[in-house]
Amino acid sequence: MKILVIGGTLFIGRRLVQTLLKQGHELTVLHRKAGHDLGRKVGNLQADRNDLDQMHGVLRGQSYDAVYDLAYDWERGTPGQVIHGTASILNGNVGRYIFMSSCAAYGDGLNHHEGDALAPEEHPNDYMRNKACSERALFRLHQRYGTPVVTLRPPFVYGPGNPMYREQFFWDRLRDKRPLILPGDGRRLMQFVYVNDLVEACVKALEAPNACGHAFNIANARPLTQAEVIEAFALAAGKPGQVVRVPRERIMRAGGHPMGPQLYFGMYFDVPPITTIISKAQRVLGFKPTSFEAGLKETYRWYLRNFKRVPQDYRFEDSLLERARLAS
Predict the structure, then answer these.
(1) Whole-angstrom distance, CA of residue 245 vs CA of residue 235
(2) Is the dihedral of CA 78, 84, 90, 93 positive or negative?
């Protein structure tokens, strides 16, 4: 098949391109740079995905058996009208348009099924609003013009090559024999998906005959508490972890923030929970998630071989730990 991957040079996209190449597909990636390091078999289109004039210039007259739309501009956001515009350029010239959304599209709440309402257009969180509006725009195209749309809604994606300072955050501290801060009571829920499983779902979304017009929650079936997450990270590394509970309000007052620079629990890991039910993906796509334990062990092996550690500034965490000691 002739396949275009919009944003195929980083974490999920890189793994997807490698997988599709092994299957013998003809691959092109679209991104902002003039070249890539994915090999000579992968074509290159250069455009700013948020600039519809540029997108029209490189995509006009092109046709693809499948398009994977993975790119999100973290600095400016990628709003729904951009996704709608991209899909409209290709409308009638694409066999399947597979969009990487997020469970964040629900806005909040637990145990979401795919038919649940998405975050409203006025939602204050840019990322949640953009993902929700993008999905609504795509499904409008499907309803009006038959655009062969599929959307995927993963939670936290982990695995080898993760550019977010998440798994590495905990393993750096365990290797430095430092206590791990557990915000609040440690019962806030988190849900994960292994990057290989998400890529497999991407492939199944292309192959499954009944996938068009549908959204799919792609995740491990069971959410974990933050206390369980720390335990799993320590177990994967084979290093006992000392946990210190610090009230979340105290962390926030001291200047802690989930996105940094004063991290305390991995980048964007300490946010209100959004969890999903995955039975539809299991039924329609044959989705079979890897256990969190097995995926973490493989990720830790990658981390030891490939992750370039940089010296960490622990002064903020030290101040939180000292306050916790004095308060105990």
Answers:
(1) 19
(2) positive
Residue 76 exposed, middle or buried by CB count within 10 Å (0-12, 13-18, 19+): exposed
Q: Is the dihedral of CA 89, 92, 95, 98 positive or negative?
A: positive
Tally of helices (H runs) and strands (E runs) in the chain: 11, 15
| CA-based nearest residue to 139, from 153, 126, 125, 122 | 153
How far is Cα 173 from Cα 312, in angstroms, rounded to an integer? 9
Cα–Cα dist 180/220, whole Å:
24
Q: Residue 264's pLDDT is what?
A: 97
**pLDDT for residue 197:** 98
Going by DSSP bridges, is the β-strand pair 224-225/189-190 parallel, antiparallel, or unpaired?
antiparallel
Residue ranges in the chain modelled with pLDDT below 70 = none
pLDDT tens-place string over residues 249-304: 999 999 999 999 999 999 999 999 999 999 999 999 999 999 999 999 999 999 99
14 vs 194: CA distance, rounded Å:
14
Give the integer Cα–Cα distance in Å for 95 and 206.
9
> Helical H runs in the chain?
11-22, 52-59, 80-90, 126-145, 167-175, 195-207, 226-237, 248-253, 279-284, 292-306, 315-327
pTM over 0.90: yes
Residue 290: closest CA among 206, 161, 202, 195: 195
Distance CA 3, CA 41 (A): 12
